[in-house]
Amino acid sequence: MIDLSGKRALVAGGSRGIGAAIALALAENGADVAFTYQHSVEKARAVSGSIEATGRRALGIQADSADPGAIARAVDEAVSALGGLDILINSAAIAYYGTVADLDLDAYQKLMDVNVRAPMLFAKAAIPHLPDGGRIVTIGSGLGERVPFPGVTAYAVSKAALTSFTRGLSRELGPNGITVNLVQPGSTDTDANPADGPSADAQRSMTSLGRYAQPREIANAVVFLASPAASVITGAVLNVDAGALA
Hints:
Keywords: Oxidoreductase. This is SDR family oxidoreductase. Helix 1 crosses helix 7, helix 3 runs parallel beside helix 4 and helix 4 runs parallel beside helix 5. The longest helix is centred in the middle third of the chain and has 22 residues. By secondary structure, the protein is α/β, with parallel strands linked by helices. The relative contact order is 0.15. Helix 2 links the parallel strand 2 and strand 3. It is globular and about 45 Å long. The protein has one domain: NAD(P)-binding Rossmann-like Domain (Rossmann fold), CATH 3.40.50.720. It contains 7 helices and 7 strands, in the order E-H-E-H-E-H-E-H-E-H-E-H-H-E.
């Protein structure tokens, strides 16, 4: 077990899938956790209950990651409720499927607002509160590095941008003792991409291990990067993808 006792975390996009697994894993390792959600009220309540069952404090904050004002408010609420902030996890994201030839401009703009602008704005709002030893971990995608099939170009572009965000921000915050890292999951068994879905066999065939990851396996990597054990790791990209990018 990694000791995060006394740490206060905010997970942007923590009501379902990988984000929910991260929120719970942080709590199980000792952190108090606030998380944002947009529509999934019942799922947010379930995540809060799971966090509280570990003995840690939980706060679900309804906030649209496409709304800059909501992002700033969410950080303020988390800091007020938890008494500060040590860890920021950027997990909120949306998908866009379709070719560039058929690109819907409004959908593309929202994709970039949520997947690229929101991590920057969450970081901007959180930085004044993060102490020496603070952590920022962003969830990207293996598609940001390799695009093995058509129809996901716009999504891949949004995830590729997070590499430069991570590396640049690590330079900016290094003098403050704050680390900034990127986790790139591969195919992970979630509602959005279930392991029994129509393309699951094709996705499994591209991995070294021949299987999907479970959300908790992604969360384990995030918890490590959020912990004191990763004190000298910053500006790094960690692929947690069953070997899909090997």
